[in-house]
Amino acid sequence: MDSRHSHPNTALELDRFASLGDMLAASVKQYPARTAFCNMGATLSYRELDRLSAAFAAYLTQELGLKPGERVALMMPNLLQYPVALYGVLRAGLVVVNVNPLYTPRELEHQLKDSGARAMVIVENFAAVLQQVIANTPVEKVIVTAVGDLLGPVKGALVNMVLRHIKKMVPAWSLPDEIRFNAVLAQGLKLPWQDAKVRQTDIAFLQYTGGTTGLSKGAILTHGNLLANMEQTYLVVHPALGEDGKVVMATPLPLYHILALAINCLLVTRAGGTSVLMSNPRDLPAVIKDLARHPITCMTGVNTLFNALANHPDFAKLDFSRWKITVGGGAAIQQAVAERWKAVTGLTLIEGYGLTETSPLVSANPVLLGRYTGSIGLPIPGTEIALRDEEGRDVARGEPGELCVRGPQVMQGYWQRPDETAKVFHADGFLATGDIAQLTEQGFYKLVDRKKDMILVSGFNVYPNEIEDVVARHPEVLEAACIGVPDERTGEAVKIFVVKRHPGLTEEALIKHCRTHLTAYKVPRQIVFRDELPKTNIGKILRRDLREEMPAQATANA
Fold first, then answer.
1. What's the pTM?
2. Residue 212 pLDDT > 70
3. What does the pLDDT read at residue 158?
4. Would you say residue 50 lies in a domain?
5. What is the SS3 assignment for 311-355?
6. Cα dihedral: 65, 67, 69, 73 (round 10)
7. Is residue 534 situated within a structural domain?
8. Of 75-84, 123-132, 137-146, 301-310, which range is least confident?
9. Last residue of one domain, picked from the residues 198, 230, 262
10. Is residue 417 part of a domain?
11. Residue 529 falls inside a structural domain
């Protein structure tokens, strides 16, 4: 393989830190006055993060009596309270259970019961949801925070106006014996604190997967898993990241999601950098204002966010001279989006691949390559990839197979689900991801699709990613999502949902475009124009929701 395509061949130091709390302590010592996190104009230095997270840890253990290994659920968007609570839980030897704030009562109840969380930190905007289910869960203590709790006196008129608006939007709620976040800190600051003795083998997170196959499952991630992936990722991005202590990372993705958690929270702390927390990534004007206000050097995001920003007129007016690297994950980066992003920013979108079960990064494109490859790049240091068939045998070079991973970042298993754990691990320790990939002639891995999303047309495999990528290249298409629908003649047929960039786009023009770039059986049989597509909280398009809209007996026109 061409050596220019390989990641830095530096020794992977897996024992640099004993725990994530130990990692934080090292950065606090080296960069005490540096801003660690900022949000809505307020900042938190490494020294303040150390002081407040220690106070939080002291309260959890000494006032609430939580013991090492017990679980604490965190349910909030990107606020300064998140890193304070997160590092407090970890330093106390407790386990973080990240909860999506947009969960329905049913989803929230399942996750709290499954994890066995005894305590919870929640922003008051979502307390009414918790109120509906708390009696059915093991949660005994609830710490409630308001959006403005750590913004202090620097709020300013505009932020105060926003906070008053948010306050009005908080549904009425009542939780017995709830404790206010700032009261917890005030009490915790009076208590003595010494970090718990935590080892790499101790559990740090129960990180719940999206539940695409039914109820979500908790991936058991240890301190060692996260520390390993942090070091692996650091080796990969460091050539472009710049000097430690000078990284300013834009964080529009929520920290409760594994991608932002690992890179925009933990890795930024490891590098002594600043994470600019954006509380609502769907508010594009607010995101763009934050990008303009701070000396950003890098950013993570997903395809839909990069697409929306690159098409926003105000984004193009930003000064990108300090920007060094933009990393995309969560879903495939489309060529049309990567090209538009480079045209606007001058930066190559670096595509990586990972999943909750691998803490998350598995592979990435070399950061100094300077071009979009359409692949997920190369395994990161210390990581092995195998492509296997249904029987678990390695496929021939160039053939598609299920992507399987082995490395120090791979989870210990699913929480209290030995049956589900057994389904995803091969006897030799490789984790089966459910994603189909192939090795290109250049030695890069290319993601073909999700195993479950594959469409079978007359016995031929059709991968939705490829169809979406081709459709998105049409200059009048903004977004596209592809699913398979039943067809009497071919078994399944390709159906595409499209959001137009310009109203003049016709079905005929799009079909003609597809016929130019796709073999006949891959050309969509049905095209549906929509104003928007269903998405997850981080902006990943939900093909599953589109499939569920289809009547069970629906058939494509033969």
1. 0.87
2. no
3. 61
4. yes
5. CCCCHHHCCCCCCCEEEECCCCCCHHHHHHHHHHHCCCEEEEEEC
6. 10
7. yes
8. 301-310
9. 198
10. no
11. yes
